[in-house]
Amino acid sequence: MRRERLDIETEVAEREPDTCSACGLPFGKKHGFETTCAACFKLYKNFPILEGDASFVWAQLQLQETIEELDRMRKSRDRYKKQAAAPAKSNPSPLDTIPISDLLQLCHPDKHGNGELATEVTKRLLALRKKK
What we know:
mainly alpha, 2 domains, two-stranded antiparallel sheet, about 5% strand
């Protein structure tokens, strides 16, 4: 009985992805107990390596390169997202170097006759101190 390509594709699509314990490359496990890819298994058992085995190893190497490139792209994307989410750093104001507690002492309403401006500035400074 001749197998159709679609039958083979359906069979391999159901395999669980794993990493070969011998070569470290990805392969699809047909059975849960498998720890090595077909090529490494054949080498270990001294079975002849056929052209199909060589093609399998080539595909493993291509897949590994693709996985590594995808990982690099994901890391790059994550770094970009962090940078985009971070607030833009502008040139710090000279006021940023003065502790808020010092600014509060200078503008506190008690020292300015409970003035409206002193009260408003003090409220804003207290809110900034809570954020930090």
